[in-house]
Amino acid sequence: MFPANIQPFARDNNFNPTEELPPGYCSRIFTDGTRILKVPFQGEEQTSGARAAILIQQVNGPKIYAHHEPTGALIMERIPGGQSLLTTMVSNETPSPSMGRVREGLSADPMNMSDIPIFIPLAQAMSTLPATNFPLLANFYKNPPEIAKILLETTPKHVFLHGDLHHENILFDDRTSTYRPIDPKGLIGDPHYEPVAFLRNPILTLPDHPNLYKFTHDRIISTSKALELDPFRIAAWLYIDRYCDLQEDPSPRWQSVLPTFHKLMTDFKM
User: Fold this and answer.
1) Residue 225: which residues within 8 A CB-CB, separation 6 or more?
2) pTM
3) Among 28, 70, 171, 243, which is most exposed with the fewest C-beta within 10 angstroms?
């Protein structure tokens, strides 16, 4: 059922939903064919995430047509094609010509480095946006490990962070043959934090990687070189992120990953 509190907003913007799409983690998604209506029901997507979605239009995020401030609901462009980076990596189908050279270069094996050149320019673009009126990374995690305090006290600069720039929040636009960012959290803080969501993904398969240490080590090295960042700080934020997440959701699969991430942090510090 279409949410009653959104119906006047939808009517005012001539949005007549024809289909409800699969929901996100925090939002219900509707379409009228050419546009998307995103209706958050929890989390930062109701507040800072909605403002961040408006901001990332400047770096090829979806065009926002209307914003319902009381709920954070957004009417936005529906990206043509709209397959996620994860989908394009694991698909065994032969890409059509309209999908462009960048997509044709992707391997069907998700556990390789071919996704990094797609992530890098998106991360670089985020850091150019104005870092104002968004929550601080310093307040994002509850009860983080001690290393978080050290990182926060030594942050080299504070930048705008998408905060959730992983494979399912990067969509391929068939029309322009480009990958486009969606669904930002919207944070301000250490630029070394931006690669974290990307490095912990694909989240459903990463814990099962047969050589997780080397795989993640090599990805941190490649990412840090391309972004001119300190690999230790990236590894430390990756550890903090998983440590804090496990306090709220003690998944056995990710419990087994945490020692590997801790060792990466320790080894990069040496």
Assistant:
1) none
2) 0.91
3) 70
